[in-house]
Specification:
The complex is a heterodimer of chains A (212) and B (378). Chain A is α+β, with helices and mostly antiparallel strands. In chain A, strands 1, 2, 3, 4, 5, 6, 7 and 8 form an eight-stranded mixed beta sheet that branches. In chain A, strand 1 and strand 2 form a beta hairpin. The longest helix of chain A is centred in the N-terminal third of the chain and has 14 residues. Chain A is globular and about 55 Å long. Chain B is an alpha/beta fold and 378 residues long. Chain B is built from eleven helices and 17 strands. In chain B, the strands form five sheets. Chain B has a five-stranded mixed beta sheet, with helices on both faces. In chain B, strands 11-17-16-12-13 form a five-stranded mixed beta sheet. Chain B has a three-stranded mixed beta sheet with strand order 4-5-9. Classes of the chains: A alpha+beta (212), B alpha/beta (378). Chains A and B meet through helix 3, helix 5, strand 5 and helix 6 of A and helix 5, strand 7, helix 6, helix 7 and strand 11 of B. Strand 5 of chain A pairs antiparallel with strand 7 of chain B.
């Protein structure tokens, strides 16, 4: 073991990042848009990838961002036949929890609180949305971190995989507040053919040095 | 002795800081007497209509420029647990874990929305201030996973100790109730008009509550006579973001994972501390899950009519009370329960039960389809 939390058994089989108007998958940019309004950008991503999921329109921006990243991550990379629903899980983190939606919900209180906004005032709802879409039923946790802590997430995910609590895990960062957003997701599996070792160093490299 | 997953993990000390008391002993004593902290509140500042909830007195926390009510509550709870444990917070082998659903969200109600405020509201900011207060040196771990946060925090701490990354974990959780949370549950029509009735035929909603719980775990063999955190499991319903599974299969899966992790079977569980929010759907789902797990005969309680639903703290508060039950050989009754009201019958504990219990199961579920289960034992 080179680093605290690293394992030599698990591999990054795909990654996806959505950041600064660009969508990239496993290092390759697939889409770019100059829209400055984040809602318009998220809709442009949805349309560009030809997604058809009416629930998308109900989601808050945190869920839209995380859900879009998971769709791009899994498309053509994830073989759902290989795993039982309970063998797939998620470990996500961000800085601003659900504050983006919290502020919008709070503005509605005086004129009749909106249940459809209130339901998104928890950061783990994005995990719920990804689980519903894909029928993932395994372990999941949402952490709040002031900055992306690759060592900690690697340690948690390796524990789940190495103890056979999960067979595959989607992990990473999904954060949004106003017009600032960043999602970087990793698909981690126990296979190594031609794939990148799941290590905190490799996660950091893919995540980039740009702060949120 | 070590379990198959690494080092054994022991409960060293705990605290409950709630409207029912400032220590675990004080809380347990009030619960034994059947006292509820849920009362009617008329407070135009947080609700246009009267409501029932378990809240601290308005003057319970002083105005403090440095720490909010949420942070003062956590500090009070952690300080008592640390004092009892005799542990040195600034030991490099000690990790600090914080769980909450909404933390300082009430600042949105009283302060101007600025980037500085947004920073101040974040759970990381609270974790940092509390860590500085006690002198914890490792980076705090912060969990916000709806109403399973407290149980997930204990499971996370247990695992970090098992694999030897740390030796001690100070695990704390709290939520406070303000207009933000109250209005949301009101908009969901999830609140009952009186004191809630967990698992009862006439249950029709929950009460909200505020409070904090802290448990200190250690893998140090010097505590080997203490109660152990034996195993945990977490699952997702993959069904609906604001309603539980219809079948309870997913919570049952988490229970199965917790038992497997603990290396025991359903027969070894002496009692169950349920989530039991007293909403029609939660309790029905939970009864299904408990029955599916072969635990329908085990005495089960819910403390929601005593404490209300303390959200991210509930799993910690109810686990700590149940650890006290193991120590005192007393399983607490489910206040508010009168008549069986779930499709699958479960054994609701309705009066104080003397029992030399060895192991108990704690369950929790929440928005986002999350479920968690943890087993403690002697």
């Amino acid at each position: 073991m080179s680093n605290k939390g690293d394992s030599d058994l698990n591999y990054i089989t795909a990654s996806c990042s959505i950041f600064e108007g660009k969508v990239s998958k496993s290092g390759q940019q697939l889409f770019g848009d100059t829209a400055t309004d984040v809602s318009a950008f998220l809709l442009a991503v949805y349309q560009h990838f030809g997604l058809n999921y009416p629930k998308f329109y109900k989601m808050d921006n945190l869920c839209k961002l995380g859900w879009l990243a998971s769709e791009v991550l899994l498309k053509d990379s994830f073989d759902s036949q290989k795993y039982r629903p309970e063998e797939v899980g998620l470990v996500l983190a961000n800085r601003n929890s659900s504050l983006d939606d919290d502020i919008k919900y709070f503005e509605t209180i005086q004129n009749g609180a909106s249940p459809s906004l209130f339901v998104y005032t928890l950061p783990n709802i994005v995990i719920g949305e990804i689980c519903i879409r894909n029928n993932f039923k395994g372990e999941h946790t949402f952490y709040i971190q002031d900055e992306f802590n690759a060592e900690f997430i690697a340690g948690q995910v390796n524990y789940l995989l190495d103890n056979d609590i999960l067979q595959t895990c989607i992990c990473g960062w999904v954060d949004i507040l106003g017009d600032n957003y960043k999602a970087v997701l990793f698909l981690v599996e126990k296979q190594n053919e031609g794939n990148l070792l799941f290590s905190s160093g490799n996660m950091r490299k893919i995540f980039g040095n740009t702060s949120v | 002795m070590s379990s198959m997953h690494g080092k054994d993990v022991f409960v060293v000390a705990d605290n409950l800081f709630t409207p029912l008391g400032k220590t675990t002993t004080e809380n347990f004593s009030n619960l034994k007497q059947g006292i509820s902290a849920v009362t009617e509140h008329i407070d135009g500042a947080i609700s246009p209509n009267p409501f029932f909830a378990a809240l601290f007195d308005k003057d319970a926390f002083s105005t403090d420029n440095q720490h909010t009510k949420f942070e003062q509550l956590l500090i009070a709870s952690i300080a008592d647990a640390l004092r009892q444990s005799g542990l040195n917070a600034s030991d490099e082998k000690t990790v600090f874990i914080l769980s909450s659903t909404k933390g300082n969200i009430s600042l949105l109600e009283t302060e101007k929305d600025t980037p500085g405020l947004q920073e101040r509201i974040s759970l990381s900011a609270s974790a940092k201030l509390i860590a500085e207060h006690f002198g914890f040196i490792n980076k705090p771990v912060v969990i916000s996973n709806a109403c399973v946060s407290g149980v997930v925090a204990i499971i996370t701490g247990m695992r970090l100790l098992r694999k030897g990354q740390y030796e001690n974990a100070v695990i704390t959780g709290a939520d406070i109730i303000s207009e933000f949370i109250l209005s949301g549950f009101q908009s969901f029509q999830a609140l009952t008009a009186g004191i809630c009735k967990p698992f009862d035929k006439n249950r029709d909603g929950l009460n909200l509550g505020e409070g904090a719980g802290t448990v200190i775990l250690s893998s140090n063999p010097q505590y080997s006579g203490n109660i152990k955190a034996l195993g945990g499991g977490i699952s997702n319903d993959a069904n609906h973001i604001s309603g539980p599974s219809r079948t309870g299969k997913e919570l049952s899966f988490a229970i199965g994972q917790a038992l497997k992790d603990a290396g025991i079977s359903a027969n070894d569980i002496d009692f169950i501390s349920a989530h039991g929010t007293a909403t029609p759907y939660n309790d029905e789902m939970e009864a299904n899950a408990i029955s599916l797990s072969g635990l329908e005969n085990g005495p089960l309680n819910s403390l929601k009519a005593n404490y209300g639903h303390t959200l991210g703290a509930a799993g910690l508060i109810e686990s700590i009370i149940s650890v006290q039950s193991l120590k005192e050989g007393l399983v607490l009754p489910t206040m508010g329960f009168e008549e069986k009201g779930t499709t699958k019958p479960v054994n609701i504990c309705s009066s104080l039960l003397q029992m030399e219990a060895k192991n108990f199961l704690k369950t929790a579920s929440g928005f986002g389809g999350c479920n968690a289960a943890i087993v403690f034992g002697k």
